[in-house]
What we know:
By secondary structure, the protein is an alpha+beta fold.
Amino acid sequence: MATISEIFRTFSPEYVDRFGDSMPQEHRKAMNAIIDCRTEAAGIAVYECQECGELHRVNRSCGNRHCPTCQNHKTSQWLQRQMQRQLPGHHFMMTFTVPEGLRRFIRSNQRVGYSALFTTSSDAIKKLARDKKHMGGDLPGFFGVLHTWGRTQEYHPHIHYVVAGGALSIRDRTWHPSRIDFYLPVRALSKIFRAKFKDAMIKAGLFEHIPAEVWLQDWNVNCQAVGESQASLKYLAPYVFKVAISNHRIVKVEEQTVFFRYRKTHSNRWRTMALDAMEFMRRFLQHVLPTGFMKVRYYGFLNPNCKVELDTVSTLIELSRGFEISRPEVEIEPWKPITCSKCGGTLKLRVIILPCGTVIKPG
């Protein structure tokens, strides 16, 4: 079965010939990293078996966040950390999506557009949570993950939030719970989201570059009750460090055509799409994020800089219910050491040889 790296190795020369002059630096960097991943071009790690003394040379991973080969371990680590921090009580998953007419603009202005998506959608949540008609709490807690792709790799920027079902009031130091089946009115959130995004684009001096009709449309905000946070965390975890398409969805490559599997919305049936290799690579690379851009962000009492401890919030949630809420135990997967293929002994890292020839010996 073909992989993303094999597709890039085969077709990148032609892609660079066609689009090299207009390729963003981030695209070129991601493509080169994926091509080099787990080859000698990415460097070599030398391990020694603690039992038999056998030396093992292992090609290093590229570590690029857009490489589908490098993200599984990061996903597992993130999920375990979040499960340890989960709060008692009910939660919601909220999704903020922009109109189709705005997507081209955001793709051309990614750093500004993505930052505005986070800022304006999170501000909309905080604004309505403070309203006494809803919860009247000035400190909700939620985190968001930016996605930019649809099921066939088309460009579709949106943000998923996992939100605790209520908000903390700093004024009276109490927890103001939401209903179990309702968090905030999505129509009101949509209007605030749209208005704040418009103000942000005016402030950035980019308002005139946006089609006028997008301000006349309803902006889609969805809110779904998900019960305890475990369910939403397990749903989101694969997406936090995942790229637009993973290797297991690639069916085959024939001549200049890439065949991959996908499922339509509200359907469990797998379908197959065929794309020209140049178009496949273009769709993949359009989801490469600007350098240093954080695609996962934490707000309210989930922000690491918040002065309110999570244990305090958990206690206040339980006090608001009048009883202690049982929380499922979190099983942390033990770290599995690398073993020798000859005798099964534990391997110890001895030296790392970087692509530039620099040798690093671990302390």
